């Protein structure tokens, strides 16, 4: 399901993503989620490079993934990402990773990022970032 507040990040499975059994290695899905989050920040006008230059870090402090079906070499993949919470210092993202051709749900995921400075001290999300993320908040489950 795609909605206006869902960010979509397309990719294609490469050989380096796969095991010898031709399914995507489990940790590669985390890389895809990171890439999708990075592109979402860019799309909302808050590129991570600029945030980091200004002293804002957003490390992932929790990740939960549920693997439903494997992706395989050369599959076209779509990472659907949305914000379920943007509080004072945390952002919670939810995601679905689907096969772009069949629509099969491959993985559901939730990640939590905390806002810190370069010394790892928690701090509030910048108001401009909170405002930009507001358009991506979706409270209903996928």
Description:
The structure is a single chain. The protein is an alpha+beta fold. It contains 3 helices and 5 strands, in the order βααββββα. A 5-stranded antiparallel sheet has the order 1-3-4-5-2. The protein has a single domain (7-134), classed as Hotdog Thioesterase (Thiol Ester Dehydrase, Chain A).
The ordered H/E elements are EHHEEEEH
Distance between the first and last residues' Cα: 7 Å
Q: Just name the CATH architecture.
A: Roll
CATH topology: Thiol Ester Dehydrase, Chain A
**What fraction strand?**
25-35%
Largest sheet: spatial strand order? 1-3-4-5-2
Broad shape: globular
CATH superfamily: Hotdog Thioesterase
Number of helices: 3
Category from helices, strands and their pairing = alpha+beta
What is the CATH top level name? Answer: Alpha Beta
Helix content: 10-25%
Would you identify the regions where 5 or more consecutive residues have pLDDT less than 50? none
Number of domains: 1
Mean pLDDT: 94
Radius of gyration: 15 Å
Strand tally: 5
Largest sheet: 5 strands, antiparallel
Write a short abstract of this structure.
The protein has 142 residues and is α+β, with helices and mostly antiparallel strands.
What's the topology here?
Blueprint: E1 7-12, H1 28-43, H2 48-53, E2 60-67, E3 76-86, E4 90-99, E5 105-114, H3 127-134
Antiparallel strand pairs: 1-3, 2-5, 3-4, 4-5
Please name the defining characteristics of this protein.
alpha+beta; Thiol Ester Dehydrase, Chain A; globular
